[in-house]
Give the backbone structure.
Amino acid sequence: MDAWSDQRDWVTMTGAIRIGVVGIGKIARDQHLPAIAASPDFTLAAVASRHAGVEHVPSFATIEEMLEQGPEIDAISICTPPEGRDAIAMRAIAAGKHVMIEKPPGATVGEVLAVIESARAAGIAFYASWHSREAAAVAAARAWLADREIRSVAINWRENIRKWHPGQDWILAAGGFGVFDPGINALSIATTILPGHLAVRRAALRVPANRQSPIAADIAMTLAHDIPVTMALDFLQEEGETWEILVDTAGGRLALTAGGSALAIDGTPLPSPHHAEYPSLYAHFARLIAEQRIDADLAPLQLVADSFLLAERETVAPFDFEIGVDAQG
Ligand code: NAP
């Protein structure tokens, strides 16, 4: 046995958490696999994906095959789209594995509540992660707002679907969330930094004629019953990203920008600590496993569900991922 093998055995024997990843797509490759590789807590033991594998890692088509034929694992991280994720989570929980899931935690509030209940009954750790809450300036924004009188909030979340979700037809299908897929990141931050309860009052969804989920939306909410909160979501911004939350208070204007990683007060930037989102998620998952705890906050998902419940829907031009075929004006 060479030195590397010795070290790997030693790490495993001293309690590294052997983890399997389900759904090897964009976010698994961009963030989860690098975060696991850099984690002192986890070892990537296996993956399951219908059309993809990871070199040098036991790869299976389904979670069932991974559980039945693969190496021993302690935990499973689920990176598939929200639709159908609850069945995968239930399978993992039934096998006694600790479970972490990507945002949004599921396609419906009800199915996620059932998963949480099963996790609780099984006594395993369950983490419905919200990566944007780990962005560098979110904690500082929350602290600054905690004792200020808030007058209004504007959330603007605009990006290019072709850049961030290339060819992902599922995202505009029923259950795919459409523009709420990124929009729920904004809501995960808003529900963390704004003191008081957020409630949806009106929603306008624009749905392409050839799709089922919105490509743009305008939501009117209130904070603590009467403070106005607007949210504008757009998947068709071609140049750059606008991921900002602007909060007007009696003590000045807070601007949380760049997806929660930059903070300014009245135009003056405040320094943000270096803080990487996905390594933080995995460090928290390791703590939940050590304490056999559940961390599953459904508030952002509830706000999306309420937006769909109240929505006025407008049919807009068809959308195709291939530029040129897109009929958007
Ligand atoms: P993706 O590139 O489409 O990858 C998801 C993978 O899941 C697919 O490659 C597919 O691999 C597998 N899968 C299993 N069942 C599927 C189904 N019914 N339809 C489509 N794929 C299915 O999507 P992603 O961007 O990684 O997003 C996955 C989750 O991560 C979403 O909840 C999203 O909100 C979240 N997320 C994405 C980003 C981002 O920037 N893209 C950022 C943060 C979080 P196989 O075909 O091999 O099974």
User: Anything to note?
Assistant: Residues 23-28, 49-52, 79-82, 84, 102-103, 131, 164-165, 168, 170, 181 surround NAP (CB under 6 Å).
